[in-house]
Design a protein that fits this description.
InterPro entries: ASCH_domain (IPR007374), PUA-like_sf (IPR015947). The chain has 149 residues and is of the alpha+beta class. Helix content is 27%, strand content 33%. The protein has a single domain, classed as Hypothetical protein (Archaeosine Trna-guanine Transglycosylase, Chain: A, domain 4), CATH 2.30.130. Strands 2-5-4-3-1-6 form a 6-stranded mixed β-sheet. The radius of gyration is 15 Å and the shape is globular.
Length: 149
């Protein structure tokens, strides 16, 4: 991923279950569902963190589109691209009136993932529960994902 293919907004680190990280990296999943709206501008670089048991940054993607709506509308529009069953979708959005579908493009699998242990040796890295903006305190290797040519 290069800075020229994503906007110059701050990258976002997004946590994913390993199953969903793999589906995104394989191209099977092109829409990521979130309970809360992400305010990052379209074109923002997303740094994909695969949670336990993988616990590593495994790739990047670019935020292509964002759709916040009622669960029924999200399901009808994005069900073929989320890699979720209807029951999983309902369970995930239980207790919320709206959800957000994040459409992804320009997905890149890292040739060698950055393990949580490696990231913590490089700096004070804390994986997010859901997502967070990359900070200046995060390991330099993550900043290079954004600035590499």
């Amino acid at each position: 991923m290069t800075a020229s293919s994503a906007t110059l907004s701050r990258p976002v680190v997004i946590s994913l279950r390993p199953r969903f990280a793999d589906a995104i990296l394989s191209g099977e999943k092109t829409v990521e569902l979130r309970r809360h709206r992400m305010a990052a501008p379209l074109g923002t670089l997303l740094i994909l963190y695969s949670s336990a048991p993988v616990m590593a940054v495994v790739g990047t993607a670019v935020l292509a589109d964002r759709h916040t709506d009622r669960p029924t509308a999200l399901w009808n529009r994005h069900r073929l691209h989320m890699s979720l069953t209807r029951a999983e979708f309902r369970d995930y959005l239980t207790g919320t009136d709206t959800g957000t579908a994040l459409s992804l493009r320009d997905v890149v699998r890292l040739p060698t993932p950055f393990s949580l242990g490696h990231l913590r040796q490089e700096g004070a890295f804390q994986p997010p529960q859901s997502f967070r903006y990359l900070s200046s305190d995060d390991p330099e290797v993550l900043h290079h994902l954004f600035t590499a040519n």
